[in-house]
Amino acid sequence: MSHPEHLAHLAKGVNHWNAWRQAEPNVYPDLTGLDLRQQTLNRINFSQTNLTRATFVGCSLRHALFRGATLAKANVSQCNLLGANFYGADLTEIILCHSNLFGSDLRRVLLQKANLEGVNLFGAYITGADLRHSNLQGANLALAECHRTQFQHTNLTAVDFSGANLEESNLSNANLSKAIVLGSHLRGAKLDGAKLAYVEIRPSLLDQTDFSKANLENMIPLRLEPLPPVPTLKAS
Asked: Which of 107, 166, 163, 174 is nearest to 137 (CA)?
């Protein structure tokens, strides 16, 4: 249950809330179970805040701060979280379906058993995050920084990893069926036991990638496009 005093500060608006947070840096707000759906909360400071089971469906949270916050089992679906900072936050079992996290900071977050179906993580920073047993079906991770990220037993069906950095990431036993990894960096990644049906990885960097025991059935084979024939000059 949310703390009444903390609720009172939040009710006065984002500017008041942020000023209070700055004046009281040693207070860790408790907004457990709070329903804030359809609110405009851009640039709000929710760092170190307990938002367990909170509801943010449809909110605008552009450039919001969630550093070190707890959003376990929160519903943050269909939100605009462009440029939001979640560094080190606990997002265990969070629901982030179809939210926009373009360019967001998710480094070192806990995202186990989370639902991120259809989420936009284009250009996001996910280094060192733990997404084991999560659902990212149809998510956009193009150009995302996923160095040393944990994707074990994760549903990555039809995920767009175009140009993403997956170096030294662990994708063991993940389902990558129909995923797009064109131009992604997979050097040192672990793909043992992963399902790679209908995946084409021709342009990727595969140095030291571990494919042991990976399910390669129906994987599109690596291939190089043939060079066009050299035109010949005919004597006139």
From this structure: 174
Supply the pLDDT for residue 114. 98
Other beta carbons within 10 angstroms of residue 13's beta carbon come to 12
Q: Which residues of the chain have pLDDT under 50?
A: 203-204, 223-227, 230, 235-236
Cα 10 to Cα 41: distance, rounded to the nearest angstrom:
10
- CA distances to 18, 103, 139, 203, 206 from 157, in Å: 39, 22, 9, 19, 20
Cβ atoms 204, 183 nearer than 8 A? yes
- Cβ atoms < 10 Å from Cβ of 26: 5
Neighbours of 47 (CB within 10 A): 20
How far does the chain reach from its first CA to its final CA, in angstroms? 90
Compute the C-alpha angle 173/128/123, nearest 5°. Answer: 95
- 87's CB contacts (< 8 A; 6+ apart) are 67, 68, 105, 106, 107, 108, 109
Helices (H) and strands (E) in the chain, counts: 2, 0
The predicted structure's pLDDT at residue 199 = 87
Burial class (CB within 10 angstroms; exposed 0-12, middle 13-18, buried 19+) of 166: buried
The predicted pLDDT at position 34 comes to: 95
Please state the φ and ψ torsions of residue 220, each to the nearest 5 degrees: -75, 120
DSSP symbols for 102-150: TT-B-TT-B-TT-B-TT-B-TT-B-TT-B-TT-B-TT-B-TT-B-TT-B
